[in-house]
């Protein structure tokens, strides 16, 4: 049985234009996959977290407090996702990676949010993939791969079918933690774990159900970016 870790952006779950039918399709796919896969989902805070963090920053809250706000948002999103997922940990959202691994002895799908200040959900996902020796680490975001510049803000951009981890680290500005609410495709600390542990990692659009299913079932990338070590 393969182990799959998916870091799924909060905007995939809670954006204004989210389609309930999409959530049903995602839920059905993940449950179907449990016949041959052990699945861990790490859910981001998305727009909800960013709005609270932006407000808190204007008020003058320090980064640690802002991080705690972000973490609370991720756990709320995680709890919501468990409610629509059979075979998941509905009664307990783990707050530590080791707790998530322990819960996987009782549930086929484990959903969690953030852990501690200074650790993004991508970093948590990478660390979870490292500890579980995952067969795949998938970063499911709201863009369809890695670009040389943010395609949401620039027109002339280049999309990478694959990218070396060292080149990605240059694009994201190093391996240091930036600040709560940062919205980069893969943050520096997560990149460092991916490089260290040589995790097989892909970035895809989380709303592309077909791409997600093909990647997990066949290890074939039909749209997105492979991160090469």
Structure description:
By secondary structure, this protein is of the alpha/beta class. The chain has a single domain (2-228), classed as Acetylglutamate kinase-like (Carbamate kinase), CATH 3.40.1160.10. The protein has helices spanning 10-14, 20-33, 46-59, 63-83, 97-103, 121-132, 165-172, 188-197, 209-218; strands spanning 2-8, 37-43, 109-112, 136-141, 146-147, 159-160, 162-164, 201-205, 225-228. The strands form 2 sheets. The protein has a 7-stranded mixed sheet, sandwiched between helices. α2 packs parallel to α9, α3 runs antiparallel to α4 and α7 (165-172) packs antiparallel against α8 (188-197). It is globular.
End-to-end Cα distance, whole Å, is 24 Å
Poorly predicted tracts of residues: none
Which homologous superfamily in CATH is the superfamily? Acetylglutamate kinase-like
| Main sheet characteristics | 7 strands, mixed
The CATH topology annotation reads as Carbamate kinase
User: Could you report the average pLDDT, rounded to the nearest whole number?
Assistant: 92
Strand ordering within the main sheet: 3-2-1-4-8-9-7
As a percent range, the share of helical residues equals 40-55%
Count of beta strands: 9
Structural classification: alpha/beta
Number of helices: 9
Shape: globular
């Amino acid at each position: 049985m393969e182990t799959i870790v998916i870091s799924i952006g909060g905007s995939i779950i809670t954006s204004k234009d989210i389609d309930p039918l999409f959530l049903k399709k995602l839920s059905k796919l993940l449950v179907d996959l449990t016949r041959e896969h052990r699945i861990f989902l790490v859910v981001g805070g998305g727009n909800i977290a960013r709005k609270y963090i932006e407000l808190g920053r204007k008020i003058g809250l320090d980064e640690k407090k802002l991080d705690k706000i972000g973490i609370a948002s991720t756990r709320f999103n995680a709890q919501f996702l468990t409610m629509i997922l059979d075979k998941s940990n509905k009664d307990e959202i783990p707050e530590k990676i080791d707790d998530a691994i322990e819960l996987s002895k009782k549930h086929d799908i484990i959903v969690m949010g953030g852990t501690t200040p200074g650790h993004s959900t991508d970093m948590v996902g990478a660390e979870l993939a490292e500890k579980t020796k995952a067969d795949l680490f998938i970063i499911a975001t709201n863009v369809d791969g890695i670009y040389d510049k943010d395609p949401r803000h620039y027109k002339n951009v280049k999309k990478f079918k694959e990218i070396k981890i060292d080149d990605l680290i240059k694009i994201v500005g190093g391996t240091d933690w930036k600040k709560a609410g940062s919205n980069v495709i893969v943050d520096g600390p997560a990149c460092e774990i991916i490089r260290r542990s040589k995790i097989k990692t892909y970035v895809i659009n989380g709303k592309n159900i077909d791409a997600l299913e093909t990647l997990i079932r066949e290890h074939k990338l039909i749209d997105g970016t492979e991160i090469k070590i």
